[in-house]
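Subject: mismatched residue count in predicted assembly?

I count 687 residues in my input, but I want to confirm that the predicted structure covers every chain. Input:
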Amino acid sequence: MKIHEFQAKELLRAAGVPVLASRVARTPDEAATAFAELGTPVCAVKAQIHAGGRGKGTVRGSDQRGVELAKTAADARRIATNLLGNTLVTVQTGPEGQVVRQVFVESGCGIDRELYAAVLVDRRVESPVLIASTAGGVDIEEVAAKTPELILSEAFDPDRGLGAWQARLLASKLGLPTASWRHAESFFRRLCRAFVDLDASLIEVNPLVLTKEGSLVALDAKMTFDDNSLFRHPTVAALRDESEEDPAETRAAAAGLSYVKLGGTIGCLVNGAGLAMSTMDLVKHHGGEPANFLDVGGGADVKAVTEAFRIILSDPHVKAILVNIFGGIMRCTTIATALVEASKTVGFTVPLVVRLEGTEVEEGKKILATSGAAIITADGLTDAAKKVVAAAKA
Amino acid sequence: MSILVNRDTRVICQGITGKVGEFHTRGCLDYGTRMVGGVTPGKGGEEIAGLPVFNTVAEARDATGANATMLFVPPAFAADAILEAVGAGIELVIAITEGIPVMDMARVMPVVRASRSRLIGPNCPGVITPGQCKIGIMPGYIHAPGHVGVMSRSGTLTYEAVWQLTQLGHGQSTCVGLGGDPLVGSSFVDILRLFEADPDTHAILMMGEIGGSAEEEAAEFVKHHVSKPVAAFIAGRTAPPGKRMGHAGAIVSGGKGTAEAKLAALKDAGIEVAESPADMGAALVRALGKRRA
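Triage response: the counts match. Full output below for your records.
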């Protein structure tokens, strides 16, 4: 789960990680008031959307950037007016962009140096790691690809946390003045503690700023959370902003389905994530474009499958649907019954190609054949893919 | 021969009194697996599917001589259940449970690594040696005894591959579901090592997916340490970056974990690559026909 920068900073502040004074504004007036209240000579006005690249992104139809410095309350009001209610397009939002519903007004600080810090779970060492780099404020992935020696990494035990010595080691390698090391110790250790305590899947601070006064402050903050842990963090779960998410994906999650919209014309309904990805690949292999990833899971019933069809059909680009089920826990008879039910209640407006295999396959095929529903059956993966691609192009 | 499990493996089920645990315990019994008991704290003394239920894994092990466990414990309690099995000295711990918090697994991993237990999963279909022992949720009938070792990060995709192999007349020595989570107990490399050493495994078929670097590490290992023919498929070639494809582990981020990088590494190691999921069984047959350089 993603959250906004202002929410991440509230969580970090509560965890004792230094962040700058700030206000959230939902109207231009609030932005102007926030500037006056903060009382610093310069404030940053930042669009709050669930995507990065805001500083370089622009509002559709204007040259307003997603992040701009304000020197007066009038500046803050103007920037907020340009941003609020408008669509910001960044490299991460895709061409459709995302609507800005709130801006973050944050006081400025004297910057000596921009660094990078992140905490995540590294699969190779099977443990959380703190990543740091002197290359702050820029695209860290590019740094990792071109100059991997600039990326520092320290693994730590979730319960012991990052050692003070590890923080000093990083401070030393980052070339921080020794007078700042105690700030670095505190900053890094609290950041790692927050990561573990909140069950985050990523905390990224880019840039992490060494101020002219020699302390460290998180100038930007991005946090994502492990969905599997939200059950034990109700306050974090409450930060979910559904207006930032694809409504179909939210609806699917509520029905226990895993759905990702992709943009092609062939809707896919599959059991199992690996098989669902492979089915998308297969469609593409035969010249089609998948409209979505959809895993109905192992325990789906008639209700869930019906909802899955409704979600797929809510995408106006879908020209045909491929159902690919390899029955294991999921019985082919269950899915066949669900298909027939769904065809009655949902009403298919596009051709439906069905490939069944596995547990109770013969009985399942019989249910489809005798139902009278307009279903194109397929034998095997290749046959199914060819039929659905042809149907989508017809 | 086979790897990990055979007709002598004595299996308990942790979470046997739950609906899913009981259902799959029966499925394993029907397949012929030597299920010897189950564990649910507080339900000791009950009987499920004709098997004794114990309060703790240690009691179950002492009473039954179990050397393997199959976990269906709910996600919030699953990490603790894995640690209990490891603490009781169970040799093979197969965690089927989906949805365990990653941080819980980060706490479990060092304990598993310092022990003599092997962990398979979590979030996996389990392990089967056809005709001998099935521990997990896979449909038994699609398998056939034979000489192809199968390993995969995803469940139904494994069924698809196994079904293709069986239809082509190639049975399987053992099929291992590694699991779709970011942190899992056994990697492709761990299982490759076992397949390479198993005289009954003549060739290996692996199904990987986008995300992480397990497939690249497997390719590197095959290049230097595996003499048997290997074929592979990578799921998620068409998945866009930054979108998680169902499995917590299946995400391309920062240009890492792409299908292209994985396919290039596999080909470089002399592994026969299946171009489509319909081609997995055939790719293994092609690999058998070639000698790896």
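Chain A has three domains: 21-107, 111-237, 247-393. Marking this ticket as 'not a bug'.
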